[in-house]
Amino acid sequence: MVYDLVIIGGASAGLSAAIYAARKKLNFILLTDKVGGQSLLTDSIENYPGFVSISGPELVKKMEEQALALGAEIKEKKLVKSVLKIDKIFEIETHDGEKYQTKTIIIASGKHPRPLNVPGEKELTGKGVSYCSICDAPLFQEVPVAVVGGGNSGLESATDSVPYASLIYVLEFGPKIIGDEETQEKLKKTGKVEFIVNAQTLKVAGDKFVDGLVYKDRISGEEKELKVKGIFVNVGQTPSAGFVKDFLELNQQGEIAIDHKTNQTSVEGIFAAGDVTDIKYKQCVVAAAEGAKAALSAYNYLQKASRP
Ligand SMILES: Cc1cc2nc3c(=O)[nH]c(=O)nc-3n(C[C@H](O)[C@H](O)[C@H](O)COP(=O)(O)OP(=O)(O)OC[C@H]3O[C@@H](n4cnc5c(N)ncnc54)[C@H](O)[C@@H]3O)c2cc1C
């Protein structure tokens, strides 16, 4: 079967695109690694119109329910590996070897946490190394943890850990903690948080589970070890566009370049929306609007293509 449209990504941008595609009665499917995206990482969104405050998981759940109610087909555990063009049709392959043929594509694959790329990190992910404090902070009861990254998301991880961990080290590579000053003050008042600046993480220590973090003091050059059982990594996000890097034009940050009016990428018939693109503002409401734009553009493209 050749679909009218395949949407890649099941979060704010992709689910909004699905709502619009369903209302336009397109023959489409949404493929996603997991429904929810980055919104799963925050328990309070206070700037999405219609909700004074809502948790990220609840917000995307509502979007998913709306798309399903309109008849959208959503397939999870479908991580897209590659996109090819064969004549006028695109072929999408997922990591489990499935192939999907389609006339148009919307890429809404967002961003994912950037790894530290230090020894021990990969091996101990899920065994003490975490990229989601909301999900995992309760696992570290009465033990010391480290948060790598002193920006706002690092401070959010520290805040999430306060009710559970016995001690929280926040490590910042630069000379100053850059996250919100008010949150820093609140964290200091807990008496549980220690800020360490000029710290370069060198290694995650541990055999089966994390039992330490080794860092270098960038001023003295001295190597030190913190005896922690959990490590939250908050060193930024990277666009999930690797699977189209040889196919579509990306900017220097690795984001998909789009025409900001139509969401068209450098390849006709492929549209992109949300955090994976080169739009300036990365927010749920923006991603949802971009998903809607991309779906309407895909619809217009299909209408034009079907005209004699
Ligand atoms: C800690 C934190 C707090 C935030 N707080 C707010 C806030 O208060 N308000 C706000 O508006 N925004 C907030 N944001 C930003 C907001 O979450 C993002 O702007 C929004 O999630 C972007 O949506 P998206 O659909 O573009 O991408 P994402 O949310 O990144 O979702 C990408 C989707 O694509 C899927 N995917 C990725 N690669 C593939 C692939 N190869 N194949 C198939 N599927 C794939 C993922 O599984 C996911 O479903 C926050 C972000 C973080 C990290």
Protein model, in words:
The chain is of the alpha/beta class. It has two domains: 2-113 and 237-306, FAD/NAD(P)-binding domain (3-Layer(bba) Sandwich); 129-233, FAD/NAD(P)-binding domain. Helices cover 23% and strands 29% of the residues. The protein contains six helices and 17 strands. Strands 1, 2, 3, 4, 5, 6 and 17 form a seven-stranded mixed β-sheet that branches. Strands 8-15-9-10-11 form a five-stranded parallel β-sheet. β5 and β6 (99-107) form a beta hairpin. α1 runs parallel beside α2 (56-69) and α1 (12-23) runs parallel beside α6 (284-306). The two termini are 22 Å apart. The mean pLDDT is 96. The structure holds flavin-adenine dinucleotide. The site of flavin-adenine dinucleotide has 39 residues, from β1, α1, β2, α4 and α6. InterPro entries: FAD/NAD-bd_sf, FAD/NAD-binding_dom, Ferredoxin-NADP_redctase_2, Pyr_nucl-diS_OxRdtase_2_AS. Keywords: Disulfide bond, FAD, Flavoprotein, Oxidoreductase, Redox-active center.
SSE ordering: EHEHEEEEEEHEHEHEEEEEEEH
Q: What would you give as the CATH superfamily of the largest domain?
A: FAD/NAD(P)-binding domain
Instruction: Give the strand content.
Output: 25-35%
Per CATH, the class of the largest domain reads Alpha Beta
CATH topology of the largest domain: FAD/NAD(P)-binding domain
The molecules bound to the chains, other than polymers, are: flavin-adenine dinucleotide
Which second-level CATH architecture of the largest domain applies?
3-Layer(bba) Sandwich
Tally of helical runs:
6
Counting helices, strands and paired strands, the structural category is alpha/beta
Pfam family, one: Pyr_redox_2
Domain FAD/NAD(P)-binding: 3-291
Protein name: FAD/NAD(P)-binding domain-containing protein
InterPro entries: FAD/NAD-bd_sf (IPR036188), FAD/NAD-binding_dom (IPR023753), Ferredoxin-NADP_redctase_2 (IPR050097), Pyr_nucl-diS_OxRdtase_2_AS (IPR008255)
